[in-house]
Structure to design on (423 residues):
């Protein structure tokens, strides 16, 4: 099947699902699209019982798409940049301490808590033998909240600004850190712990994180210098597109964190460059272009996640592990958030039950599935992919549909504009 045919099928399906969602379901787009994609998948499986050619064709389509590479190497850079571009750096800076803690120490701690608990559950509760390092890999890929899923839900919910900033800031940065932790553990799993020194691990982590941040600042500065010398919205929008694509590719060649690079570049351009080096016309077109990119890629991404059900293995033990992993992941996130929230609550504005809201609202998405797909067969790929898929689907559909009700039940509503300005 040609690339053009695959893209056409995905665009047509995404457009049909988006219309049905807006016209009839009126759910947050990420949730509505994925529910319809899963429903279509179940229909294909049902029809496939009568005509095996149907399911064979559908499976052939999904297996011809390298979803891991598509998300991590193509879609992620655009989606992260679009999210960072519209993030208020002033508010983000006010909450920098808890955001950095959540996105670094929090992700690292969650990796070990989830990995350790999952190791015990797999080996002792459901009698599935799996190495501890592979359980840590699962902890690393499932711990970061997905900025794509989180931002999509937050657009529909009236949470207070200080809470929204924590959600957005954490989700924009923790996936980059999570990918770095995952790659480090992946290297250890491939080469063996005895062949990887502590110094090498520290150097890899520092190179990825610090290099990604430095590259992002450089990309933002270059964009500002270029756009300040011209006044042509078409060219300036093209420059931002080139910065995202070229910057992400350069980061991968330099072994820097591409996600962190585009997030930092997006924050720089969205908060400094657009105000000092762009005209009002350029700012308008820039916003509309990246909003459209965000909506378009989000639609395709969550349709793909739904269709991925076609090639997921649901052996009895796998299904049980996935269902147990749901509360396990939620409990781990709650415990990891509890300490920093308690530490910062007197210094910064934390709304009532921030720990509970951020636990239930910390959605997992395409990044977790993509990382699970990158595992090798020796790393128990099918088992971990199935467990990851179950956690992600529960996260997006169940948590995504109920987080607004939770916020209302806790009495945490967005303040008026005048009140927000005073905070």
């Amino acid at each position: 099947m040609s690339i053009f045919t695959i893209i056409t099928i995905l665009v047509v399906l995404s457009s049909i699902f988006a219309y049905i969602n807006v016209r009839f379901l009126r759910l947050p787009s990420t949730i509505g699209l994925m529910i319809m994609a899963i429903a279509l998948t179940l229909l294909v499986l049902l029809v496939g019982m009568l005509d095996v050619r149907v399911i064979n064709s559908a499976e052939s389509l999904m297996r011809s798409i390298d979803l891991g590479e598509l998300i991590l190497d193509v879609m992620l850079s655009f989606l992260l940049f679009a999210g960072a571009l519209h993030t208020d750096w002033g508010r983000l800076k006010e909450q920098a301490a808890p955001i950095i803690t959540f996105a670094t120490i929090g992700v690292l701690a969650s990796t070990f808590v989830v990995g350790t608990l999952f190791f015990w559950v797999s080996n002792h509760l459901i009698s599935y033998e799996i190495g501890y390092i592979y359980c840590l890999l699962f902890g690393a890929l499932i711990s970061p909240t997905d900025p794509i899923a989180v931002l999509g839900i937050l657009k529909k919910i009236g949470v207070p600004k200080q809470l929204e900033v924590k959600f957005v800031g954490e989700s924009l940065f923790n996936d980059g850190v999570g990918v770095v932790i995952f790659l480090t553990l992946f290297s250890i799993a491939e080469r063996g712990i005895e062949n990887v020194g502590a110094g090498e691990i520290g150097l890899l982590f520092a190179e990825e994180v610090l290099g990604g941040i430095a590259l992002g600042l450089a990309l933002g500065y270059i964009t500002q210098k270029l756009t300040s010398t011209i006044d042509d919205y078409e060219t300036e929008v093209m420059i931002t597109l080139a910065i995202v694509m070229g910057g992400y590719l350069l980061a991968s060649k330099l072994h820097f964190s591409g996600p962190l690079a585009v997030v930092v570049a997006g924050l720089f351009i969205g908060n400094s460059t657009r105000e000092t080096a762009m005209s009002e016309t350029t700012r308008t077109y820039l916003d509309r272009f990246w909003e459209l990119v965000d909506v378009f890629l989000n639609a395709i991404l969550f349709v793909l996640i739904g269709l991925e059900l076609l090639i997921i293995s649901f052996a009895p033990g796998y299904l049980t592990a996935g269902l147990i992993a749901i509360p396990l992941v939620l409990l781990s996130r709650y415990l990891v958030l509890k300490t920093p929230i308690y530490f910062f609550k007197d210094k910064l504005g934390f709304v009532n039950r921030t720990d509970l809201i951020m636990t239930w609202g910390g959605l997992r998405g395409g990044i977790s599935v993509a990382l699970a797909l990158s595992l090798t067969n020796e790393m128990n790929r099918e088992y971990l992919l199935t467990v990851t898929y179950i956690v992600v689907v529960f996260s997006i559909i169940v948590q995504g549909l109920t987080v607004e009700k939770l916020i209302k039940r806790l009495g945490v509503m967005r303040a008026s504009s005048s009140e927000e300005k005073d905070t």
